[in-house]
Amino acid sequence: MKVKKYFRPRDLNEFHRLSAENPDHKILAGGTYVAKMKFPKVDTIIDIQDLGLKGIKEENGDIHIGANVTFTDLIEAELSYCGGLVGQVSSHCGPITIRNIATIGGNVMAGYHWNDTTPLLLALEATLMFTSDSGVKAVPVSSFIANRSTYTGLLLTSIILPSKYKDTKPFYKRFARTRSDIPTSIFIVLNSEEGDHITVGSATVKPVRIMYSADDEFLINTLLPRLNEVKFMDDLRGKPEFKEKIVISQYREWKEK
Amino acid sequence: MDIKVTINGVKKVFNADPGEKLLDLLRREGYKGAKRGCSTGDCGSCAVIINGKLVNSCLIFAGQADGHTLTTIEAIGTVNEPHIIQRTFVEEGAVQCGFCTPGMILATKVLLDKEKDPTLTQIREALSGNLCRCTGYVKIENAVIRSADKMRSE
Ligand SMILES: Cc1cc2nc3c(=O)[nH]c(=O)nc-3n(C[C@H](O)[C@H](O)[C@H](O)COP(=O)(O)OP(=O)(O)OC[C@H]3O[C@@H](n4cnc5c(N)ncnc54)[C@H](O)[C@@H]3O)c2cc1C
Ligand code: FES
Ligand code: FES
After folding, report:
1. Residue B59: which of A3, A35, A45 has the nearest Cβ?
2. B7-37 in b/e burial notation, b at 16+ Cβ within 10 A?
3. A65 in contact with ligand 1, CB cutoff 6 A
4. Which residues have a Cβ under 8 Å from the Cβ of A200 and sit 6 or more positions away?
5. pTM, 2 dp
6. I need a surface site. Which of A119, A136, A227, B38 has the fewest CB within 10 A?
7. Handedness of CA B98, B104, B109, B110 (dihedral sign)
C-alpha cells in the first residue's frame, strides 16, 4: 500500500465527497486489519474517527451500536442485553491492545470467515445500517453474509440489536487453541418466541443459523448436513473433520445443559 | 502532514508521511523505547498509551494519533530515577533481554492506575497483548504483584 493521501473527514458529506474524489481509498477505523494488509491499489486512507460513529444507546429496547465503537467500549458498557453476551464476545476479540482500538464495524467489514462478531450478530438477527451518497440502507446481517461484496465501499454507520433478545439467556461456547487465539468454532443458542435457534460460526466457511426442532436425530439429520452443505473450513486451525467434531461436542454440551 | 499530539505531557507537532505508522514516527523522533517486534499486533513490544489505553503503535497510522494524548516508556522513569514498577521488574528478575520490557511496564502502569490490588486474572488480562520470549511470565507476574504492593504502601 503506497498511501499518498490521508483524510479525516468531519462529517458524512465530507466523507462522501472524499470517497467519490478518491476511488482507490480505504476506509480506516481502528486500523488493526488495514495496517497489516498490502492493498496494492489503495493510495488514500479515509479515517472515520471524527464522524461521530461512537455511541452505544438503547432505544425502545433495541441496542444501537456505532460502527466505530471499540471492543473495550463494548466491554466497559456492561450491557445487560441478552445476558451480557455482547460484552462476553467482545472480551475474546484479540488481546487487550487490539480490543482497545479495534472496532466492531471494522471486524464485521474486514470479512474474515472466522471472526467473533458475525456469528454473534447473526444469532441476534442484527441489522447493519449503511450509508452512501444515495442514502441510508438497513441490511439484515443474514443478507450481508449471503452477499458481502454488494456492500463493499459503503460506510457502515451502526448496528442495531433487536429488543426481542433483551432478556434472553444465551448459550455461548467458543473453542480456540489458546485464550487469545482467534476462534476455531463458535456455537450460540438463543431462545425466542419461535423457539431455539443455533448459530455456528468460524468452523464453517460462513456463519450459519438454524431453527432447532426437538427431534432426537436433529444433530445427524439437520445440523451436520446443513453445516456440511455450507462447508467446514480447512485452515491452519484444523481439518474439516476436526471442526465437525468440535461442533458436535459443543452441541452435546448444550443438550446436556 | 502535521500530527499534533500531547506526548509525555508536552505539546508537539510532528511531520509524518500519509502512510507512516506511529511506531516509525516515534522512533524517528527519538522515542526509541517502543520496539519493532512483529509488526502484526501480536507481540506488544511497540506498545504505547493513547488516551489512557494501551495500543500497538505498529498497527496505528500516525494520522490516527493526531489530536490525542500519548505516553511512551520515556515518561515513566529514567535510568537514575526509575519508576517503582521499573525498579521492581529489575529486583524480581522480570527483565532478561529487555525487548518486551517497555511494553510490559506500560501495560502494568495502565493496570495499576486503575486497579490498586489486581487479581492474577486481571494481571494476565492486562498483559495479554505482550509477549515475552525469555522470562516465562512468572517473574513478570510477581513483579506486577510486588509493584502493586509497594505502590499501595507508598
Ligand atoms: C493480534 C490480533 C488478534 C486478533 N484476534 C481476533 C479474535 O480473536 N477475534 C476476532 O474476531 N478478531 C480478531 N482480530 C481481528 C480484529 O478484531 C480486527 O482486525 C478488527 O476488529 C478490525 O477492526 P478495525 O477497527 O481495526 O478495522 P480496520 O482495520 O480499520 O478496518 C477493517 C476493514 O473494514 C473496513 N471498515 C472499517 N470500518 C468500516 C465502516 N464503518 N464501514 C465500512 N467499512 C469499514 C476497512 O476499510 C477495512 O477493510 C485480531 C487482530 C489482531 C491484530
Ligand atoms: S511490533 Fe507491534 S505488536 Fe509486535
Ligand atoms: S525479557 Fe526478553 S522478551 Fe521479555
Report:
1. A35
2. bbeeeeebebebbbbbbbbbbeeebebbbeb
3. no
4. A119, A185, A186, A187, A207, A208, A210, A223, A227, A247
5. 0.97
6. A136
7. positive
Cell of B60: 496505528
Q: A96 alpha carbon to ligand 3 midpoint, in Å? A: 19
Length of chain B: 154
Ligand 3: distance of its center to the CA of B26 in Å?
21
- Structural domains in chain B plus CATH codes: 2-75 (3.10.20.30), 84-153 (1.10.150.120)
Inter-chain contact B61–A1, Cβ cutoff 8 Å? Answer: no
**Grid cell listed for A119:** 456469528
User: What ipTM describes this predicted complex?
Assistant: 0.96
Asked whether B39 lines ligand 1 (CB < 6 A), one says no
CA distance B129 to B42: 7
pLDDT digits (tens, 9 = 90+) for A160-202: 999 999 999 999 999 999 877 899 999 999 999 889 999 999 9
